[in-house]
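Quick question: who can interpret this fold?

. . .
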Amino acid sequence: MTSEHPLHVRADDVAPVDEDLVEELRGLLGEVSGFVQLAERLALLSDPRRLQILFCLHAHPGVRSSDLARAIQAHDSTTSHALALLRDAGWVRAQRSGREVRYELADGLAHEILHALGSDHLPGVDHAHTHPHGTPGGAPDHPKRAAGGR
């Protein structure tokens, strides 16, 4: 980040007393649950192949696992294993049509993170504007998603 100023600043010039600040922070942390689950879910993003898969699914939803494997230059079995991990963690979901399985992002958090990381959509793929659940792609938040995510 090249900004000279922090992203957040206090609304006033009065810094809280250290003990008061600690108590406020503890209160804030007490309002949010699921840090362990969220950390485990985010840890999956540290693997380059899994991250490449997410970039591909963000760029073009509905890709088959065999096409993903070819795009990231990995074996089908490696890609299937990565997709299973991502699916179990709530990052992706599978859509079956007959014998064919296509994958897409499972929730808005994945979509937001990928945009923040610089992922883009391929031509012809755009955000739909009316979704029943309000997230890009219309996907509801995954039930395993930890509280506190936005």
Observations:
- The first strand starts at residue 63 and ends at 64.
- The helical segments are 18-30, 35-43, 48-59, 65-72, 76-88, 108-116.
